[in-house]
């Protein structure tokens, strides 16, 4: 099965918003083109991630995620999913799969705990919560080593083209954007 890796744990959230639970084979394959993290304040949050090719059809990501702020209800996350047929920067349009800003702590108790951590497994030292998230979220540099994800959880049918997922974290001292760009190609059976 075609395996690909999208991004930091933040970006995986994006793709869960595409989840439709179908069991059929996808009609597409994804090629990750880039992953970038930008921060307005690297001493508060900093992200350094890169895409790595694991085999001909498998990709992963490696890098670090530095977290140095208190995780409270003021920390928000917004997800934007854009698509472009041509890949030209000016052609990207926001899709309805985008979601409005939500509290970061809500994600930890839902998607992060139930789907992200079981998928990432041992490629990262991000904290694991068996039960409800109990603060504090540690201030640390978290490591990712060739984290690979399979495409499960993504829609079976996607139009070909370029997709950009952006996770935007907003907190008091910092704004962070993690962006991943994928090229989606439809498969011939
Ligand atoms: C992850 O590491 C733990 C402890 O070293 C081990 O018990 C577990 O089987 C590992 N899980 C995977 C998926 O490799
Ligand atoms: C990440 O790796 C660095 C360097 O090996 C280490 O100091 C740090 O403790 C690791 N982070 C976690 C959360 O274990």
- Count of the separate structural domains: 1
**Main sheet record:** 6 strands, antiparallel
Radius of gyration: 16 Å
Number of contiguous helices: 2
Indicate the percent of residues in helices: 10-25%
CATH architecture: Distorted Sandwich
Strand proportion, as a percent range, falls in 35-45%
- Choose one word for the global shape: globular
The helix-and-strand class reads mainly beta
Overview of this protein structure:
InterPro entries: DUF1091. With 189 residues, this protein is mainly beta. The protein has a single domain (26-186), classed as Ganglioside M2 Activator Protein, Chain: A, CATH 2.70.220. Helix content is 13%, strand content 45%. The chain contains two helices and eleven strands, in the order E-H-E-E-E-E-E-E-H-E-E-E-E. The two termini are 14 Å apart. The model is unreliable at 1-10 and 17-23 (pLDDT under 50). It binds 2-acetamido-2-deoxy-beta-D-glucopyranose (2 copies). Residues 125, 140-143 line the site of one 2-acetamido-2-deoxy-beta-D-glucopyranose.
